[in-house]
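Morning run. Coffee first, then this:
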Amino acid sequence: MSFGGNIVSITQSASNIWQLQSQDNVQGILETLEDAESVVVRRRALRALRQMEAQQGLSKLRELRDQEPYPELFQLFNTVIKLFDPSDIAPKFSETSYRSSLIDWLHGDDTEKAIDAAQKLGEINDKLAVEHLVMVFQDRFNTPALRLAAAESLIKLNSAPASASLLVALRKDDWQVRRNAAAILGQLQARWAVQPLIDVMRHDVNPTVRKTAAAALRVIKSTQALAALDTGKLSL
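And here it is:
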């Protein structure tokens, strides 16, 4: 599904929750909460249940809480349940289950979810995910955005392959280091690095570095790279 399609789906689901809430349809919101893949939709459903004081859904809420892979929503489940049952003893969030879910999403078919998983694995400093992130980064069939997210997380984990480490060099204070990194990324035809190269071409303070980044984009020749070169907004 395209990103645009995801936005439409999320908007429609959120609208459905409003309608169900206006009808006091607790069961319908619980079913939406159970079926929805979107974090946004699940969050909206939980907030609706909180506003409705839907105590009759407690048992289902506890069941879904135990299956929730996101820490933020797990805590929101606890908050809602506590409103209806102050004596509820909240279980500890399973970090192992969370990591397992992220790795599953990383290798799944949903690109947006995979990118999110790659970013979060870096944020939680999960060294056990390094092998999985390297596999994703090195797979040329993955989208450039996903490979870039994997590279960024590998850098955070101090485990980046040599080619991914060039992103660090692109951000160094020494302009010659930045220029050399841009040139090498061009030689490698690193499609995953197109967006960082575009950023350098547009914003680097050194004109030589900007020109080198533009030259690298010409070598890479991806649709994104050529579109950025054709904007004509940058004086190289």
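Residues 1-8 have pLDDT under 50 and may be disordered. Good start to the day.
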